[in-house]
Amino acid sequence: HSDGCHDRLRDPAQRSVPHDPPGRQTSEGSAAGGPEQGAAYHPDIRRHSDYCGIHHRDPVQYLLYIQYWLADLQRRFDVCAARTAAAVEALKRGEVAYFGELMTASHVSLRDDYEVTGPELDALAEAAWQVEGVLGSRMTGGGFGGCTVSLVKEEAIDRFKAFVGEEYEKKTGLKADFYVAEIGDGVSRLE
Fold first, then answer.
1. ∠ CA 76-79-80 to the nearest 5 degrees?
2. What is the C-alpha separation between 71 and 143, in angstroms, rounded?
3. How crowded is residue 41: how many other Cβ atoms within 10 Å of its Cβ?
4. CA distances from 133 to 60, 106, 171 (A)
5. DSSP tag of 51
6. In sequence order, what are the residues at sequence separation of 6 or more whose Cβ sits closer than 8 angstroms to the Cβ of residue 56?
7. Lowest mean pLDDT among 1-10, 122-131, 137-146
8. Distance CA 116, CA 129 (A)
9. pTM above 0.85?
10. What is the pLDDT of residues 14-49, one digit of tens each?
11. Rounded CA gap, 121 and 142, in Å?
12. H-run or E-run covering 149
């Protein structure tokens, strides 16, 4: 891959959180950098969902976008697969902090690339990211509502629950419930 993502995953000294190739803009800019990079471009478009009504106004631009979207979908799948493989390796090596970074990057991708999180899930994850002692947080489940899973150091649990609960209620008007789970030994055969 020309973006160097896979090279950074193989070399922990150069590792970063796999999310997007350099130069790609998500919700802050035009679709994949605009026409100078061969992507379909329209000045009113900032997110994939913005294209929903453009086919009525500009059918040629919409067809170009479909071509772009299919290539971008493949890129998103590739980045997600690289992040998942990196997460497996991080857990095998006991690199819990890096695993947490990958969780956070996954949520950002689900929010920006797949647009499946929603304001409630974003409020939970974004509040969690602000708490010292939180290694990572992301949505879990099918999206469009539900809950997050957060990797929190034991000494930060009470601070996490207080801050995230307060921020969530402030932003959504809803009360958050928290369930503290402990990591077990995983699946094993019972004799």
1. 85
2. 23
3. 18
4. 50, 19, 22
5. G
6. none
7. 1-10
8. 19
9. no
10. 444 444 433 334 433 333 443 334 444 445 555 555
11. 11
12. strand 147-152
